[in-house]
Amino acid sequence: MRIIDLLDERAIDLELKSMTKADVIRELAGLLEKAEKLNSIEDFLEAVFKREKHSTTGIGYSIAIPHGKSRGVKHPAIAFGRSLEGIDFDSLDGKKAKLFFMIGVPEESHNEHLKVLSRLSRMLIHDDVRTELMKADSKKQVMEVIRKRDS
């Protein structure tokens, strides 16, 4: 499964408005809803917030990857958001998160979200990928950065 196949331009926002962790989770879920990837945003949000209670998905390096497995998701999808100022996401390194990838998978998925999470993490460990995503000035550029690294 390729990351680029799960990402839809309608689910990309280069100027997130949120200032808090809870709000950015809602904003990203709203992108997935706008891209018609959800059956129920409420069900999906419940799964994502439940997951966040176990441990943060702010992995450090300015990255957060909130995710949820829910009957509220039609099929596997990813939303991408960026905050140039950063948002406190209880990240493991104590720094604000600036790049957000929200993963949604249907309830009946087995370990699909873990595979996507692993693939995304391997891609984002590279400084140049994070730098290119921070500098992207269009949704098309974000898609191109992901496409280039998603082989």
UniProtKB/TrEMBL annotation:
The keyword Iron does not apply. It holds the Pfam family PTS_EIIA_2. It is found in: Cytoplasm. Keywords: Phosphoprotein, Phosphotransferase system, Sugar transport, Transferase, Transport. Residues 5-149 form the PTS EIIA type-2 domain. Its main location: cytoplasm. GO terms for cellular component: cytoplasm; membrane. InterPro entries: PTrfase/Anion_transptr (IPR016152), PTS_EIIA_type-2_dom (IPR002178), PTS_IIA_fruc (IPR004715), PTS_SugarTrans_NitroReg (IPR051541). One of its GO terms (biological process) is phosphoenolpyruvate-dependent sugar phosphotransferase system. PROSITE patterns: PTS_EIIA_TYPE_2, PTS_EIIA_TYPE_2_HIS. GO terms for molecular function: protein-N(PI)-phosphohistidine-sugar phosphotransferase activity. NCBIfam families: fruA. PANTHER family: PTS SYSTEM FRUCTOSE-LIKE EIIA COMPONENT, PTS SYSTEM FRUCTOSE-LIKE EIIA COMPONENT-RELATED. This is PTS system fructose-specific EIIABC component. It comes from Koleobacter methoxysyntrophicus. The gene is fruA_2.
